[in-house]
Design brief:
393 residues; alpha/beta; Rossmann fold; 2 domains; five-stranded parallel β-sheet; four-stranded parallel β-sheet
Amino acid sequence: MRNGTMTTDPHPEQKPPPPCADPSAPFRDPVLGRSLLGGLRERAARLARRLGRPVRFMEVCGTHTVQLFRSGLRDLLPPELAHVSGPGCPVCVTPDQELAALLALAGQADVILASFGDMLRTPGPDGRSLKHARAQGAAVEIVYSPLDALRLATKHPGKLIVFAAAGFETTAPSTAATVIAAQARGVDNFRILCCHKTVPPAIRLLLADGDHGIDALLLPGHVATVLGMEPFAFIPETAGLPAAVAGFEPIDLIAALELLLDMLHEKQPRLVNAYSRAVAAHGNSRAREMMMRVFEPADAIWRGLGLIPGGGLRLRDEYAAFDAATSLGLDLSATRPAAGPAAGCRCGEVLRGRILPPECPLFGTICTPASPVGPCMVSNEGGCAAWHAYGRN
């Protein structure tokens, strides 16, 4: 009130909005979790009695592997429910051929190699890694996104910046966006070595083996946010197995496992979306269109699985100028290591779900996160690293 007259302040003091509630909090509710676990145990026991053996699931996502341990769910799951990890860690499935190519690039005087941190520690041929190359003077920079690599290119115009483009469909769109940005800005000293892999073809190859021993699949929520559901439809249609796209909180995982057990009990395999708050039926069309604008499907070698038709990506002809392998005359077949995996390393069998990490003779002794022999012990999402951090207790 001013001079006896009521006024309205044109700029009233704005109160900050109340803090946003964590939308994922209900999916970590311990009371609900205990209740659901009781039903899960009953379903698993009933189904295992009918089968005469434990029910065997595979999760095809490194984040699921870690979350099952970190949340304590792996210890709480009933013994009738056997769990194995599949090829869900991008670093783990990067083959020696690509690691050898990265090491060759890092050895060139006019090149700065930009890479995510996990890739630096991944042992390649003869156990040598980019970390070793860096210690010996190679210009290797850790970046947190491909755009960081592009910034390096503008900062060092006299050097060729090569980004180690690894990851599944989750990270490929950001690489594609960076290539488009480099072309639009005329940055001519930026390249990528494309190590991107695509998940559905790898699952198809895995299930083509009649001896896979898998009853049902937990599918990666991150990849499905980009791809949607349709690329996984072949799992029930062709392989005859139930499959569920799952989130990453404990309730997400329990709910997805319940759905899979119900489908197995009813003998009606389907593909279900148990992560509908994040995954749309058709995925993220913008991210997918950007990815396919820059890349096209290509055959690719996966560690542990071999050559997978359509299992990777390569740059389309319109963006071939950004291909490090082509522009530098790097023949990936020429970098194929003569030696196989390190003696005793069974990463390939871990990635196919044939063995659990502790069954590898090197696990926890010669091979540890501090001194990894195989790539599954490098990344936090690697099966061996997860077992080493959580499973031994």
